[in-house]
Amino acid sequence: MVPPVRDITAQGYDLQFGTNVLGHFYLTKLLLPALLDGSKSSPDGWARVVNTSSAMAGLGKKINFDTLTDTPERKKQIAWQLYGQSKLGNVLFSDELARRYGHDGIISISLNPGNLRTELGRSLSKFEAAVIYPVLHPVHLGALTQLWAGTSPEAVSMNGKYLVPWARVGKTRPGGDDSSKLSGELWTWMDNQVSNF
Q: Is residue 7 part of a domain?
């Protein structure tokens, strides 16, 4: 979480976006045939994809596509902006997956697991850690929302929803209530990026 801005993936993508969003998109794309088949043989008729986002997804309502690869524009950003953008990307990807495949038996849910005392903050400055760590929850609570989204019978009615701690539908959602245009643009961009992998 929030590594130095100079860090990029081997393919030249912003490290946070490449790791948090593009990698998840590619894995999901590779698994789509199994997910579609699995929904047909599942006892409840559904396969589930759960994308973990963050409260930081609310930092912005757009994706700055000029910052997703190693560009001068990306280097002008601060690490927290890039992290928040990657977490917004998780929500938008999940939304678009729900739109495209919900009618085919795939439930896609994005969520904020809560602000937790984990090692994800190892790149934080001492000042940031001193401010943030006192208000974080114990790490064992972090799995509650993901487990509920992935296993609860009630979650089958949550396709396209954004959940907050502890397994509740968020009152507001990152990207705004109608982010379908942006989620479609992001999907197309990611699909183009992974076409040569």
A: no
